[in-house]
Amino acid sequence: MTNAYTTPGLVCAHHHLYSSLARGMPAPKIAPHNFLSTLENVWWKLDAALDHDMIYWSAALGAAEALLSGTTAIIDHHESPNCIEGSLDVIHAACTDIGIRVIPCYGVTDRWDNDGKLQEVNTTSPMTQGAELGLAETKRYLLSDRPAMVGVHAAFTCTDETLDTAAHLATEFHTGVHIHVAEGQDDRDAESRLQKYANDDWLIVHGVHLQKPIAGTIVHNPRSNMNNAVGYARPAQWRNRIALGSDGIDSNMMSEFQLAFIAGRADDISFSPDLAWNWLFNGSQLVPDTQNDVVTWNYPHMDSSWHLAYTTSLHVTDVSINNEFVLFEGKLTKVDLEETRRKAEEQSRRLHHALAMSE
Ligand SMILES: [Zn+2]
C-alpha cells in the first residue's frame, strides 16, 4: 500500500559504516590543513586500528540508524588494512542482524607498503601485499553469491596492476567497481587512468574534480564534500545517472537530499528540488528490491520534493523490508537500539584508545 505518508526504501549509495565509531573521537594532534592531511591524520589512522569487534558494532550502529532514517540499503565501502580477511562477512552479519540490505566492498589500495607503512604510490610498481589481500577478500565474498561490488580506494593510491586486476575481477563477477574519483585535487587525473575500464556498473564516487566524462553512476556526497572543503561537484553538468551517498557521515538520506538541494541552489538559483529528489531515488535503480520496501513517515507530503526540501522534523515511524517490519512504531524489531548504542560506545572507546596509543 502506498500513500502520501510513505516512500520506498531509501538507498545510501556510498557509505563507510566503519566511521560510526568516529563520533566523539579526540581531535587529531596535527590539525588537518587540506584534504590529503585529513585522510592521513584522521581516516587512515582510524581504519588501520579497526578489528572485527569494532567493525561489527560500527556496522550495527550505522545500520540501526539507517533504518531509523528510512534507509533500507547501504552500499558500503570498507577498509581495515590490519584486519582484512573476513571483514566483509562481519559487515554482512551486522547488517543482517539489524535487518537492512547491504552491498559491501573492500576498498583495495597500495598506499601501505609491505611493512605496513604509509607510502606514496608509484603507479608502475607491483601490487602490494595489502592490495592482494583486499582483492582476495573481495573474491572470497563474491564467490558466496551475495550482492557485492569490487572496491578500490582511489586511483591515486593504487598501482596500475591493482586497478587492472580490480576492473577484471568486477567484470568476471558481473558487478561494478566502487571507487572514489577526483574527490580532491590529489586525484585530479583519475579518469585518465580509469576511463578504459569504467562501465555503467561502476560507482564513481564524488567526481568533484572530474575533467572529462567517465562511465558509471556518479555518487554525489554534498555533506561530506562541504565537510572536507573539496569544492562543489556540480553533478548536474554530467549526463550520468546521479545518486546520493553520505560518505560515512551517517545514513540519513533525507538530510543528504535537503543539502543536495541547498548546495545546488548555492551554485544556481534555478536549481529545482525535483532534480535533487531524482538523485535521491536514483538509488533505487542501484538496489531495485528497495522499491518494494515501505517507509512510513510522520508527514503527509512524502511525494512532494517542494515540501520536503524545506520541511524539518521528519521522522520515520515504520519500515518494512521484504514484507517484514524491521522498524515498527519507531522501534527496531530485531535488536535493542540502546544496547546497540552501548556496545558501539564500548568499541569506540577501544578504538579511540588504540588511536591515542598509535600517536
Ligand atoms: Zn568515501
Question: If you had to describe this structure to a student in words, what would you say it looks like?
Answer:
This protein is α/β, with parallel strands linked by helices. It has one domain: Alpha-Beta Barrel (TIM Barrel), CATH 3.20.20.140. It has 11 helices and 14 strands. It has helices spanning 35-48, 52-68, 87-98, 129-142, 160-172, 190-194, 222-227, 253-267, 273-286, 305-308, 337-358, and strands at residues 6-7, 10-15, 71-76, 101-103, 107-108, 150-154, 177-181, 203-206, 217-220, 242-244, 294-297, 316-321, 324-328, 331-332. The strands form 3 sheets. It has a 6-stranded parallel beta sheet. A 5-stranded antiparallel beta sheet has the order 1-11-12-13-14, with helices on one face. A 3-stranded parallel beta sheet has the order 2-3-4. Helix 2 (52-68) runs parallel beside helix 3 (87-98). Zinc ion (ZN) is lined by residues 14, 16, 77, 180, 205, 247. Residues 14, 16, 77, 180, 205, 247 line the site of zinc ion (ZN).
